[in-house]
Protein backbone atom coordinates (compact mmCIF):
# COMPACT_ATOMS: atom_id res chain seq x y z
CA UNK A 1 0.00 0.00 0.00
CA UNK A 2 1.24 3.47 -0.84
CA UNK A 3 0.46 6.97 0.52
CA UNK A 4 1.36 10.24 -1.17
CA UNK A 5 1.45 13.41 0.96
CA UNK A 6 1.28 16.82 -0.69
CA UNK A 7 2.80 19.00 2.02
CA UNK A 8 4.75 17.00 4.60
CA UNK A 9 4.11 19.18 7.65
CA UNK A 10 3.14 18.43 11.23
CA UNK A 11 -0.04 16.47 10.45
CA UNK A 12 1.31 14.86 7.28
CA UNK A 13 4.33 13.53 9.16
CA UNK A 14 2.16 12.11 11.96
CA UNK A 15 -0.20 10.41 9.49
CA UNK A 16 2.76 9.02 7.56
CA UNK A 17 4.26 7.52 10.71
CA UNK A 18 0.97 5.81 11.50
CA UNK A 19 0.72 4.25 8.04
CA UNK A 20 4.39 3.26 7.93
CA UNK A 21 3.77 1.34 11.16
CA UNK A 22 1.10 -0.54 9.19
CA UNK A 23 3.55 -1.41 6.43
CA UNK A 24 2.68 1.33 3.94
CA UNK A 25 5.20 2.95 1.61
CA UNK A 26 5.27 6.77 1.78
CA UNK A 27 5.99 9.36 -0.89
CA UNK A 28 5.72 13.13 -0.54
CA UNK A 29 6.44 16.46 -2.13
CA UNK A 30 9.76 18.19 -1.49
CA UNK A 31 10.41 21.67 -2.82
CA UNK A 32 14.18 21.71 -2.31
CA UNK A 33 17.14 19.36 -2.05
CA UNK A 34 17.44 19.70 1.73
CA UNK A 35 13.85 18.63 2.28
CA UNK A 36 14.29 15.75 -0.17
CA UNK A 37 17.37 14.60 1.74
CA UNK A 38 15.50 14.72 5.06
CA UNK A 39 12.66 12.65 3.64
CA UNK A 40 15.04 10.18 2.04
CA UNK A 41 16.75 9.68 5.41
CA UNK A 42 13.35 8.61 6.76
CA UNK A 43 12.81 6.15 3.92
CA UNK A 44 10.31 8.45 2.16
CA UNK A 45 10.38 8.91 -1.61
CA UNK A 46 10.08 12.54 -2.67
CA UNK A 47 9.09 14.46 -5.78
CA UNK A 48 9.30 18.12 -6.75
CA UNK A 49 5.68 19.28 -7.18
CA UNK A 50 6.78 21.32 -10.21
CA UNK A 51 8.28 18.27 -11.95
CA UNK A 52 5.43 16.48 -13.73
CA UNK A 53 7.47 13.37 -14.55
CA UNK A 54 8.76 12.99 -11.00
CA UNK A 55 5.25 13.46 -9.62
CA UNK A 56 3.79 10.87 -12.00
CA UNK A 57 6.48 8.37 -11.02
CA UNK A 58 5.88 8.95 -7.30
CA UNK A 59 2.13 8.51 -7.77
CA UNK A 60 2.25 5.20 -9.59
CA UNK A 61 0.26 2.60 -7.69
CA UNK A 62 -0.80 5.09 -5.02
CA UNK A 63 -3.68 3.98 -2.79
CA UNK A 64 -4.23 7.15 -0.77
CA UNK A 65 -3.38 10.85 -1.05
CA UNK A 66 -3.31 13.44 1.74
CA UNK A 67 -3.30 17.13 0.81
CA UNK A 68 -2.21 19.44 3.63
CA UNK A 69 -0.81 22.45 1.76
CA UNK A 70 -2.78 25.68 2.29
CA UNK A 71 -4.31 27.42 -0.71
CA UNK A 72 -2.79 30.60 -2.06
CA UNK A 73 -4.21 33.42 -4.21
CA UNK A 74 -4.52 31.00 -7.13
CA UNK A 75 -6.20 28.24 -5.14
CA UNK A 76 -4.91 24.91 -3.86
CA UNK A 77 -1.37 24.29 -5.20
CA UNK A 78 -1.99 20.55 -5.26
CA UNK A 79 -4.71 20.87 -7.88
CA UNK A 80 -2.35 22.21 -10.53
CA UNK A 81 0.42 19.75 -9.71
CA UNK A 82 -1.25 16.62 -8.43
CA UNK A 83 -4.27 16.16 -10.68
CA UNK A 84 -2.39 16.12 -14.02
CA UNK A 85 0.26 13.83 -12.52
CA UNK A 86 -2.43 11.40 -11.33
CA UNK A 87 -3.86 11.29 -14.84
CA UNK A 88 -0.43 10.76 -16.38
CA UNK A 89 0.37 7.97 -13.93
CA UNK A 90 -3.05 6.38 -14.55
CA UNK A 91 -3.38 6.36 -10.78
CA UNK A 92 -6.81 6.17 -9.16
CA UNK A 93 -6.36 6.27 -5.36
CA UNK A 94 -9.13 4.85 -3.22
CA UNK A 95 -9.03 7.88 -0.91
CA UNK A 96 -7.99 11.53 -1.14
CA UNK A 97 -8.06 13.47 2.11
CA UNK A 98 -8.07 17.26 1.98
CA UNK A 99 -7.24 19.12 5.20
CA UNK A 100 -9.34 22.26 5.52
CA UNK A 101 -10.14 24.48 8.48
CA UNK A 102 -13.09 25.36 10.69
CA UNK A 103 -12.32 28.93 9.60
CA UNK A 104 -14.63 28.28 6.63
CA UNK A 105 -17.58 28.82 9.00
CA UNK A 106 -16.60 32.30 10.09
CA UNK A 107 -18.12 33.78 13.25
CA UNK A 108 -21.19 32.19 14.88
CA UNK A 109 -21.12 34.24 18.09
CA UNK A 110 -20.44 31.18 20.23
CA UNK A 111 -23.19 28.99 18.75
CA UNK A 112 -22.72 25.37 17.71
CA UNK A 113 -21.89 24.75 14.04
CA UNK A 114 -22.21 21.58 12.01
CA UNK A 115 -20.98 20.53 8.57
CA UNK A 116 -24.27 21.72 7.05
CA UNK A 117 -23.91 25.27 8.41
CA UNK A 118 -23.60 28.12 5.90
CA UNK A 119 -19.96 28.99 5.21
CA UNK A 120 -19.35 32.61 6.22
CA UNK A 121 -15.55 32.80 6.14
CA UNK A 122 -14.40 36.22 7.30
CA UNK A 123 -10.70 36.01 6.51
CA UNK A 124 -8.95 35.74 3.17
CA UNK A 125 -7.44 32.46 4.33
CA UNK A 126 -10.85 31.05 5.26
CA UNK A 127 -12.37 32.12 1.93
CA UNK A 128 -9.53 30.41 0.07
CA UNK A 129 -10.26 27.20 1.97
CA UNK A 130 -13.92 27.41 0.95
CA UNK A 131 -12.83 27.65 -2.68
CA UNK A 132 -10.31 24.83 -2.35
CA UNK A 133 -12.91 22.51 -0.82
CA UNK A 134 -15.26 23.29 -3.70
CA UNK A 135 -12.54 22.70 -6.31
CA UNK A 136 -11.58 19.36 -4.80
CA UNK A 137 -15.20 18.19 -4.74
CA UNK A 138 -15.47 19.07 -8.43
CA UNK A 139 -12.27 17.16 -9.20
CA UNK A 140 -13.59 14.17 -7.29
CA UNK A 141 -16.82 14.16 -9.28
CA UNK A 142 -15.08 14.81 -12.59
CA UNK A 143 -12.44 12.10 -12.19
CA UNK A 144 -14.50 9.62 -10.19
CA UNK A 145 -12.24 9.94 -7.16
CA UNK A 146 -13.23 9.63 -3.51
CA UNK A 147 -12.36 13.02 -2.01
CA UNK A 148 -13.09 13.76 1.66
CA UNK A 149 -12.54 17.11 3.38
CA UNK A 150 -11.62 17.43 7.05
CA UNK A 151 -12.24 20.74 8.80
CA UNK A 152 -9.68 21.23 11.55
CA UNK A 153 -9.52 23.79 14.39
CA UNK A 154 -6.38 24.78 16.31
CA UNK A 155 -3.97 21.83 16.30
CA UNK A 156 -1.80 20.92 19.26
CA UNK A 157 0.46 18.03 20.19
CA UNK A 158 4.04 17.22 21.20
CA UNK A 159 6.25 20.22 20.56
CA UNK A 160 3.25 22.38 19.74
CA UNK A 161 1.12 23.14 22.79
CA UNK A 162 0.52 25.57 25.64
CA UNK A 163 3.18 23.64 27.57
CA UNK A 164 5.80 24.63 25.00
CA UNK A 165 4.71 28.26 24.97
CA UNK A 166 4.98 28.44 28.74
CA UNK A 167 8.44 26.86 28.74
CA UNK A 168 9.53 29.39 26.12
CA UNK A 169 8.22 32.26 28.23
CA UNK A 170 5.54 33.02 25.63
CA UNK A 171 2.45 31.93 27.56
CA UNK A 172 -0.32 34.55 27.56
CA UNK A 173 -3.88 34.60 28.89
CA UNK A 174 -5.78 36.88 26.54
CA UNK A 175 -9.28 37.24 27.96
CA UNK A 176 -12.20 38.10 25.69
CA UNK A 177 -15.47 37.49 27.57
CA UNK A 178 -17.58 34.74 26.00
CA UNK A 179 -14.86 33.66 23.55
CA UNK A 180 -14.35 29.92 23.00
CA UNK A 181 -12.36 27.85 20.53
CA UNK A 182 -12.37 24.24 19.46
CA UNK A 183 -9.05 22.40 19.22
CA UNK A 184 -7.73 18.94 18.34
CA UNK A 185 -4.74 16.82 19.34
CA UNK A 186 -2.68 15.71 16.34
CA UNK A 187 -3.13 12.04 17.30
CA UNK A 188 -6.91 12.48 17.08
CA UNK A 189 -6.57 13.95 13.60
CA UNK A 190 -4.57 10.88 12.60
CA UNK A 191 -7.15 8.50 14.05
CA UNK A 192 -9.91 10.38 12.22
CA UNK A 193 -8.05 10.12 8.92
CA UNK A 194 -7.45 6.42 9.51
CA UNK A 195 -11.11 5.71 10.17
CA UNK A 196 -12.06 7.60 7.00
CA UNK A 197 -9.43 5.68 5.04
CA UNK A 198 -11.13 2.48 6.13
CA UNK A 199 -14.58 3.86 5.17
CA UNK A 200 -14.04 6.03 2.07
CA UNK A 201 -16.95 8.31 1.24
CA UNK A 202 -16.94 10.48 -1.87
CA UNK A 203 -17.78 14.10 -1.07
CA UNK A 204 -17.60 13.55 2.68
CA UNK A 205 -16.97 16.54 4.96
CA UNK A 206 -16.12 16.08 8.64
CA UNK A 207 -15.26 18.33 11.54
CA UNK A 208 -12.40 16.72 13.45
CA UNK A 209 -12.51 18.60 16.75
CA UNK A 210 -12.50 17.71 20.43
CA UNK A 211 -15.60 17.51 22.62
CA UNK A 212 -15.19 20.70 24.63
CA UNK A 213 -14.76 24.13 23.03
CA UNK A 214 -13.11 26.24 25.71
CA UNK A 215 -11.73 29.71 26.39
CA UNK A 216 -8.00 29.87 25.53
CA UNK A 217 -7.12 31.33 28.94
CA UNK A 218 -8.48 28.18 30.61
CA UNK A 219 -6.13 26.05 28.54
CA UNK A 220 -3.13 28.19 29.44
CA UNK A 221 -4.05 28.15 33.13
CA UNK A 222 -4.37 24.36 33.13
CA UNK A 223 -1.03 23.96 31.35
CA UNK A 224 0.66 26.19 33.92
CA UNK A 225 -0.73 24.13 36.78
CA UNK A 226 0.48 20.92 35.12
CA UNK A 227 3.98 22.37 34.88
CA UNK A 228 3.85 23.86 38.37
CA UNK A 229 4.67 27.34 37.10
CA UNK A 230 2.89 30.65 37.77
CA UNK A 231 -0.27 31.23 35.78
CA UNK A 232 0.32 34.11 33.35
CA UNK A 233 -1.64 37.24 34.27
CA UNK A 234 -4.86 38.10 32.46
CA UNK A 235 -4.45 40.33 29.42
CA UNK A 236 -7.74 41.99 28.49
CA UNK A 237 -8.53 41.62 24.80
CA UNK A 238 -7.28 44.65 22.86
CA UNK A 239 -7.16 44.52 19.09
CA UNK A 240 -4.75 47.45 18.90
CA UNK A 241 -1.95 45.49 20.52
CA UNK A 242 -2.37 42.32 18.49
CA UNK A 243 -0.87 40.97 15.29
CA UNK A 244 -3.21 40.58 12.29
CA UNK A 245 -3.11 36.78 12.74
CA UNK A 246 -4.16 37.02 16.39
CA UNK A 247 -6.93 39.49 15.55
CA UNK A 248 -8.28 37.06 12.94
CA UNK A 249 -8.12 34.27 15.49
CA UNK A 250 -10.24 36.18 18.03
CA UNK A 251 -12.66 37.56 15.44
CA UNK A 252 -14.42 34.20 15.19
CA UNK A 253 -16.32 32.64 18.07
CA UNK A 254 -18.02 29.27 17.63
CA UNK A 255 -18.48 25.81 19.06
CA UNK A 256 -17.75 23.19 16.40
CA UNK A 257 -19.55 19.84 16.58
CA UNK A 258 -17.86 16.49 15.90
CA UNK A 259 -21.14 14.53 15.97
CA UNK A 260 -21.04 13.60 12.27
CA UNK A 261 -17.56 12.09 12.41
CA UNK A 262 -18.62 10.07 15.44
CA UNK A 263 -21.84 8.87 13.79
CA UNK A 264 -20.53 8.08 10.29
CA UNK A 265 -16.94 7.04 10.97
CA UNK A 266 -17.26 5.62 14.47
CA UNK A 267 -14.44 7.98 15.45
CA UNK A 268 -13.86 9.00 19.04
CA UNK A 269 -11.12 11.40 20.15
CA UNK A 270 -8.64 9.79 22.52
CA UNK A 271 -8.28 13.27 24.07
CA UNK A 272 -11.86 14.59 24.32
CA UNK A 273 -10.68 17.79 26.02
CA UNK A 274 -7.46 19.77 26.34
CA UNK A 275 -7.00 18.35 29.85
CA UNK A 276 -6.43 14.77 28.66
CA UNK A 277 -4.37 15.97 25.71
CA UNK A 278 -1.99 18.12 27.72
CA UNK A 279 -1.61 15.45 30.38
CA UNK A 280 -0.64 12.89 27.73
CA UNK A 281 1.92 15.26 26.16
CA UNK A 282 3.49 15.95 29.55
CA UNK A 283 3.57 12.26 30.48
CA UNK A 284 5.34 11.45 27.22
CA UNK A 285 7.97 14.06 28.01
CA UNK A 286 6.61 16.68 25.61
Give an overview in words.
This protein has 286 residues and is of the alpha/beta class. 41% of the residues lie in helices and 17% in strands. The protein contains 11 helices and 13 strands. The chain has helices spanning 10-20, 33-41, 52-59, 77-89, 124-143, 162-167, 186-198, 216-227, 244-250, 259-265, 274-283, and strands at residues 2-6, 25-29, 45-47, 64-67, 95-101, 112-113, 147-152, 154-156, 173-175, 183-185, 205-207, 234-236, 255-256. Strands 3-2-1-4-5-7-11 form a 7-stranded parallel β-sheet, sandwiched between helices. The protein has a two-stranded parallel sheet with strand order 6-13. A two-stranded parallel ribbon has the order 8-10. Strand 2, helix 2 (33-41) and strand 3 (45-47) form a beta-alpha-beta unit. Helix 1 crosses helix 7 (186-198), helix 3 crosses helix 4 and helix 8 (216-227) runs parallel beside helix 11 (274-283). It is globular and about 55 Å long.
Strand order of the largest sheet: 3-2-1-4-5-7-11
Percent range for β-strand residues:
15-25%
Largest sheet: 7 strands, parallel
Rg from alpha-carbon coordinates: 19 Å
Features:
286 residues, alpha/beta, two-stranded parallel ribbon, 13 strands, 41% helix, globular
Describe the secondary structure blueprint for this structure:
Elements: E1 2-6, H1 10-20, E2 25-29, H2 33-41, E3 45-47, H3 52-59, E4 64-67, H4 77-89, E5 95-101, E6 112-113, H5 124-143, E7 147-152, E8 154-156, H6 162-167, E9 173-175, E10 183-185, H7 186-198, E11 205-207, H8 216-227, E12 234-236, H9 244-250, E13 255-256, H10 259-265, H11 274-283
Parallel strand pairs: 1-2, 1-4, 2-3, 4-5, 5-7, 6-13, 7-11, 8-10, 9-12
Helix pairs in contact: 1-7, 3-4, 8-11
Amino acid sequence: MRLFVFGMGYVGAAFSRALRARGWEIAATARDADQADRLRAQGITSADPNDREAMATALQGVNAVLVTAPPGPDGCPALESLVPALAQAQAFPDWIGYLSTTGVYGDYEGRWVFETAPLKAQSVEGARRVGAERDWREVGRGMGLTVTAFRLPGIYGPGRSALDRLRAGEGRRIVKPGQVFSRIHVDDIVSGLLTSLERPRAGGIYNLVDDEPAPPQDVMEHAARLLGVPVPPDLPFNELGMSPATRRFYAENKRVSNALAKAELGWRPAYPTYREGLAAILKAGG
